[in-house]
Write a structure and sequence with these properties.
Elements lengths: L3 H11 L6 H16 L4 H85 L4 H72 L1
Helix pairs in contact: 2-3, 3-4
Main location: nucleus
Keywords: Coiled coil, Nucleus
Pfam family, one: THOC7
Amino acid sequence: SFSADEVIRKRLLIDGDGAGDDRRINLLVKSFIKWCNSGSQEEGYFQYQRMLSTLSQCEFSMGKTLLVYDMNLREMENYEKIYKDIENSIAAAHEKISECKKQILQAKRIRKNRQEYDALAKVIQHHPDRHETLKQLEALGKELQNLSHIKENVEDKLELRRKQFHVLLSTIHELQQTLENDEKLSEAEESQETQMETEAKQ
């Protein structure tokens, strides 16, 4: 003997999405039998109207199911578009990372040049021509200041790219988690439909 929970579970599986399709079919069969056995024209007409009403409900339920199916197809297309957008975003992120690496190398070269300029400035300080030395030091000072501004701009831009990349990775992770959850839900629904079909055949 089946327990109450097993009976309820089997009825839900047979009923599909719980819209009462099995009840409508049973009602239609009963109405048809009553229509066949109707004794009067009035009773036959009443059973005939009940059958038409039940058929209309079945058609409405089938139409709703088709709409849900079409909606799921559109959702799948939307997810595929999102997945392509994610791939494009990842490719763009790789390009930004490559550009940031180039900027880091440029900043390192600037730093090396600055160290060389510092060493050169120390040598120039011992030059016998003080006036010419002061002019050269002034020129070097301006160059160093310009290089310092360039370095600061590069470092600021690199920091901004790091933050943007972090936000991008977080968004990608959330979208991937959403896609995985949707796939798990779809697999669960497919498994439930397969079980329903197996039990219906039995």
